[in-house]
Every structure is written in C-alpha cells, then in structure tokens.
Amino acid sequence: MKDNFSTQSDKYAKFRPTYPSELFDYLNTIVPNKENAWDCGTGNGQVAYELAKNFKNVFATDISQEQLNNARKADNIKYSVQSAENTKFDNGIFDLIVVAQAIHWFDFEQFYKEVKRTSKENAKLCVLGYGIIKISSQIDNIITNFYEKVIGKYWDEERKYIDENYQTIPFPFEEIQSPKFENRHEWSLEHLIGYLNTWSAVKHYIKQNNHNPIEELELELKKYWNKGENKEVRFPILLRIGKINSSI
C-alpha cells in the first residue's frame, strides 16, 4: 500500500470533501448489527467519525501516523497504524468494513483475505470513493484540462480505478445494488485551491519540477469566480457494497 498522504496531512483533513449523511443513513439500514466497524485507510477519520455515531466500536486504521494525528476523535474510535493487508485484529469481529477513497492503493487479493478473516459471516464491505469535481461547464473544462494534460502523467497508475468509478476493481463478494449518491458543498475558491493541492499528482509534479502548477490554474479559475463568492461543488459518489461470505 502506498503512502501519498503523510505530507500536508493537516490540509488533507481541512480541504478534502466529506460524504453525505444520506449515505450513512443507508448503511445503517443494511447493517442490522452495529457492534464493530472497521474503517480501513481512514485518513483524516471523517468516515470513522460518522460510523461512531451508530456503532459501539469503530476501529480505524491507516499506514500514516501523520494522518491519524489529524483525525477526528470520538470516545468509541480506536485509531491504529496498520496496513490494510495485514492487521492484528481477531478473526470474525466486524459487522461492517468501509474503505473510503483508498482501496485503489491496496493489494486487492491480500486485503480481501483480511476482510474475510476479520468479518462476521454476512457482514458488509462498503467501498467508497468520489469522482472528479463538478462545478460549472467552464470551470469543469479548465479542471479537466489540468487533470488530464497538465498533471495527467504524474498520477499513480492506481488512479485509473477512480476514473473507472471503481467498476473495474476485483470484487469477489455478493454485490448489493445500492442507490446513487452525490456529495454537494458550498466552497470558496480558496477551499477549491486547497483541495486541488491535496491531489497526489500535484505533489508528484512539484517534486519533479520544483514548481506548483496550481498557481497558473488559479489564475484561470479567477476569471469565472468572483472574489468572496461561494459556489456549489458536486462530487459523484463511487459506491460498491458486498455481503462477505468466507466461503466465496
């Protein structure tokens, strides 16, 4: 599992989008037993924090201690530095396992072995993510050009799974058809720039070129964004849910 997010982890916690409450309401309806949940690749702990509102215990893991240092806290969340593919958890303890915007970094085969080992029979695996941001036709075109042509070659190979809406990841579970969700926020231009600066490809670009390409991008965006203005930003939610059966 790669660690692209230990640096600037405070910005990751501040600028990354959250997930809609309707999504967690839906998960509550399909997971009847709410004793133990595992938020794998928890990052800034936003999903763990939401799960903690309904689950007795939430175990949240990440390979980045820096990310965990900035994670949201709750009395029933237990954070620990562990890899997705090899944990110290007991067998058969989880009612729900969630991976949010992280599974594309994992070794699928090894992680799924760990999922089956640590979950209760008929527990649920929820793979979450979000696609490319949508704002307006003009701004979307600018960001798409930046995404594909300016920093395109700096994305890790695993990014393709996000672009393919997680539909091409291996998923050896009995899949549950779920509703479609969309995330909506009101953001300032400063928040958008903060978010774009958390992109791993931007970090790779800066490391190789000693220059932040966001500076030119911001000048382009300012043509369509008034000073002090907030705009609605939208993220399509990528979602796959499976019933975990150890024999499959």
Topology summary:
Elements: H1 9-15, H2 21-30, E1 36-40, H3 46-51, E2 57-62, H4 65-69, E3 77-81, E4 94-100, H5 108-118, E5 119-130, H6 137-150, H7 160-163, E6 174-176, E7 182-188, H8 189-196, H9 200-209, H10 214-221, E8 230-244
Parallel strand pairs: 1-2, 1-4, 2-3, 4-5
Antiparallel strand pairs: 5-8, 6-8, 7-8
Helix pairs in contact: 1-8
InterPro entries: Methyltransf_11, SAM-dependent_MTases_sf
GO molecular function: S-adenosylmethionine-dependent methyltransferase activity
Keywords: Methyltransferase, Transferase
What's the rounded overall pLDDT mean? 93
Q: Sheet with the most strands?
A: 8 strands, mixed
Q: What string, H for helix and E for strand, traces the elements in order? A: HHEHEHEEHEHHEEHHHE
CATH architecture: 3-Layer(aba) Sandwich
The CATH first-level class comes to: Alpha Beta
For the secondary structure, the number of strands is: 8
Q: From the alpha-carbon coordinates, what is the Rg to the nearest angstrom?
A: 18 Å
Count every helix, treating DSSP H or I runs of 4 or more residues as helices. 10
Give the CATH topology: Rossmann fold
Q: Quick one: overall form?
A: globular
Distance between the termini: 24 Å
Helix content: 25-40%
